[in-house]
From TrEMBL:
<dbReference type="InterPro" id="IPR042868">
    <property type="entry name" value="PHYHIP/PHYHIPL"/>
</dbReference>
<comment type="function">
    <text>Its interaction with PHYH suggests a role in the development of the central system.</text>
</comment>
<keyword id="KW-0325">Glycoprotein</keyword>
<dbReference type="GO" id="GO:0008104">
    <property type="term" value="P:intracellular protein localization"/>
</dbReference>
<comment type="similarity">
    <text>Belongs to the PHYHIP family.</text>
</comment>
<protein>
    <recommendedName>
        <fullName>Phytanoyl-CoA hydroxylase-interacting protein</fullName>
    </recommendedName>
</protein>
<dbReference type="GO" id="GO:0005737">
    <property type="term" value="C:cytoplasm"/>
</dbReference>
<dbReference type="InterPro" id="IPR036116">
    <property type="entry name" value="FN3_sf"/>
</dbReference>
<feature type="domain" description="Fibronectin type-III">
    <location>
        <begin position="13"/>
        <end position="122"/>
    </location>
</feature>
<dbReference type="InterPro" id="IPR045545">
    <property type="entry name" value="PHYIP/PHIPL_C"/>
</dbReference>
<comment type="subunit">
    <text>Interacts with PHYH and ADGRB1.</text>
</comment>
<dbReference type="InterPro" id="IPR013783">
    <property type="entry name" value="Ig-like_fold"/>
</dbReference>
<dbReference type="Pfam" id="PF19281">
    <property type="entry name" value="PHYHIP_C"/>
</dbReference>
<dbReference type="InterPro" id="IPR003961">
    <property type="entry name" value="FN3_dom"/>
</dbReference>
<dbReference type="GO" id="GO:1990782">
    <property type="term" value="F:protein tyrosine kinase binding"/>
</dbReference>
Length: 337
């Protein structure tokens, strides 16, 4: 039968797209369309594309352009779980409205303008999931007594001559999980604390340089320090890294972390502990994780010792801007699904 002329009237093109309530794996979208279309429209077509970043992880499967067909609902509409949205990623989106005809075909509007937005970082609930995964492989706790930082001689000389003998906090790079709220946001000084299980001492090898600054653990970690869980990742390796943040209570770094990262109990957690035993502070670290500790404040070199280490420079262990393996079942969580 011939379609009535009334049903064939063209639909107006959606315009004035608004996107808000953006999280790491969802967003809300609304747009304007003619009142006369509101009763007629039965479906929305939403075209979402990841903006290709020239530095994007080449191991990742290329996202295919995705069109979501959704039954028309009152706007704004929340888009979640229809796609596997990645955190901290730029997307472009355009919409089309449609009327499903009696023969199953769609009468469609023109495509709206394309708008761009960027998804958010992992929320605390996502980091709590990563924390749970890290706890499962953390292993037993070993005692340690110093935090240490390896670097080149020039780095320490610069701190002495130009920074008032202080190691100054710097911006964390993009290593680790792509959704980590600390990347490119948190300032701090990186330290290690892992020991060799046979000697109980820091290893003699390092990927970061032949010079090592060692500082008694209680100088950075004590009951007036807050400890936060920040990340858990690997780099296509059998071993895993956890990033923890040590922030003196009330400091700028502490305020940054309080809203964004899970707070750990310093005396009782699976990663890094400071407890009082026989009147002494005792420190322990997880044996089966490589811990990367970010201390959020400047560190005075006079509080520790500086010396040269005898071992090799194992560059393969460096995590500078390291890309997380997105396929590892041990350290990835599935947001959005």
């Amino acid at each position: 039968e011939a379609k009535s002329v009334g049903s064939m009237e063209l639909l107006s093109t959606p315009h004035s797209i608004e996107i808000n309530n953006i999280t790491c794996d969802s967003f809300r979208i609304s747009w304007a369309m003619e009142d006369s279309d509101l009763e007629r429209v039965t479906h929305y077509f939403i075209d979402l594309n990841k903006k290709e970043n020239k530095n994007s992880n080449k191991f990742k499967h290329r996202d295919v352009p995705t069109k979501l067909v959704a039954k028309a609902v009152p706007l704004p509409m929340t888009v979640r779980g229809h796609w596997f949205l990645s955190p901290r990623t730029e997307y472009s989106v355009a919409v089309q409205t449609a009327v499903k005809q009696s023969d199953g075909e769609y009468l469609v509007s023109g495509w709206s303008e394309t708008v761009e937005f960027c998804t958010g970082d992992y929320a605390k609930e996502h980091l709590a999931q990563l924390q749970e995964k890290a706890e499962q492989i953390a292993g037993r706790m070993l005692r340690f007594s110093v935090f240490y930082r390896n670097h080149h001689k020039e780095y320490f000389q610069h701190a002495r001559t130009h920074c008032g003998n202080m190691l100054q906090p710097y911006l964390k790079d993009n290593s680790g999980s792509h959704g980590s709220p600390t990347s490119g946001m948190l300032h701090g000084v990186f330290f290690s604390c892992n020991t060799e299980f046979n000697t109980g001492q820091p290893p003699q090898d390092s990927p970061y340089g032949r010079w090592r600054f060692q500082i008694p653990a209680q100088r950075l970690f004590n009951p007036s320090t807050n400890l936060y869980f920040a990340d858990f990742y690997c780099m296509y390796t059998a071993y895993h890294y956890a990033i923890l943040v040590l922030a003196p209570k009330g400091s700028l770094g502490d305020r940054f972390c309080r809203d964004r990262l899970p707070l750990l109990d310093i005396a009782c957690n699976k990663f890094l502990t400071c407890s009082v035993e026989d009147g002494e502070l005792v420190f322990r670290h997880a044996q089966d994780l490589i811990l990367e500790i970010i201390y959020t404040e400047p560190v005075d070199l006079s509080l520790g010792t500086l010396g040269e280490i005898s071992g090799h420079q194992l560059m393969s262990l460096s995590t500078a801007d390291a890309k997380k393996d997105p396929s590892c079942k041990t350290c990835n969580i599935s947001v959005g699904r």
